[in-house]
Amino acid sequence: MDDSERAGSPAVGETPAPQPRSLGHRILQFGLTRIVLATLAILAATVVVQAVLGGVLGGLRAGPLRRDTLLYVIPLVIAVHFAYIGYVRLVERRRASELAGKGAVRETGAGIAVGAGLLVVSITIIAVLGYYEVTGSNPVSVIMPAFAMAIISGYVEEVLFRGVLFRIVEESLGTWIALALTSLLFGFAHIMNPNATLFSSFAIAMEAGVLLGAAYVLTRRLWLAVGIHFAWNFTQGGIFGVRMSGITVDGLLESQLSGPTLLSGGEFGVEASIFALVLGMGTGVWFLVKAGRKGHFIAPFWRRA
User: Fold this and answer.
1) Which residues are 133's β-sheet partners?
2) pLDDT tens figures, 13-67
């Protein structure tokens, strides 16, 4: 018997026993730790972009930095994108498959079609009931702030809520609990918006939180959710001139919502309408059914072998 056999080395063809991980490694890979680190990376990217652009504009005496312009949005999205990818490579030691380039254009385009379609159907129902009225129109140029804001919400919020929070929670607690927790968090993150109510936050949780989480579960990538989120916000504010989650923006059309808030959404916007809630949540459930058929659900850790 040689020294390796006496030391307990595995025989040829055997799989070596896994080496125990250090305490530091286990702490680093703990879900809450990774959520904090990923969030800090995204926040750091945001602060750097604001500081650099603010400094450049200040040096040029071009006035304060506006966060509803492409001058701010494009560098921000690029910075957040690479901050997230960098976090994944350094901490999780893997490639960010959820942001893989293959299929990105197709899935984002499909998401834009879904998001815009849901908003158009919601507005159409409200208009047929007489609660949405067009009062005027604006030149195309006025839609740029709404376009820029929709890009930020569509990309940055999806990276944070679905790429970080949903994905990491799901790894431990499973798909259903992750969907419930992140949907509620996403909905009630809007509770401080102008004209927000408990119902408007609940509606966003059910129609958007469920829909966007389901879009990620279905594709296991972020692009479908990004497209839906962007198109819903831009179509609502930039095209139909309706408040985006209570925030007033200038759109191609000037309009007003009237009638019962439960039906029209009132001062908060279409998200607080029962029609948007039913359509958004219904589409999310459909995505979940398709995801289940593909075997994309993850069980909580206590149910795994």
Assistant:
1) 256
2) 444 445 567 888 888 888 899 999 999 999 999 999 999 998 887 777 667 778 8
pLDDT digits (tens, 9 = 90+) for 123-160: 999 999 999 999 999 999 899 999 999 999 999 999 99
Phi-psi domain of 258 (left: phi exceeds 0; alpha: psi -120 through 50; beta: other): beta
How many angstroms separate the most distant Cα atoms in the chain?
Answer: 92
Rg (CA), the chain: 23
Report the alpha-carbon distance of residue 274 to residue 266 in Å, rounded.
11
Q: Residue 247 forms beta bridges with which residues?
A: 244
End-to-end CA, the chain:
37
* Planar angle of CA 283, 288, 293, nearest 5 degrees: 130
| Residue 67 amino acid letter | R
Percent of the chain with pLDDT over 70: 92
Q: Which two tokens stand for residue 80?
A: 């957040």
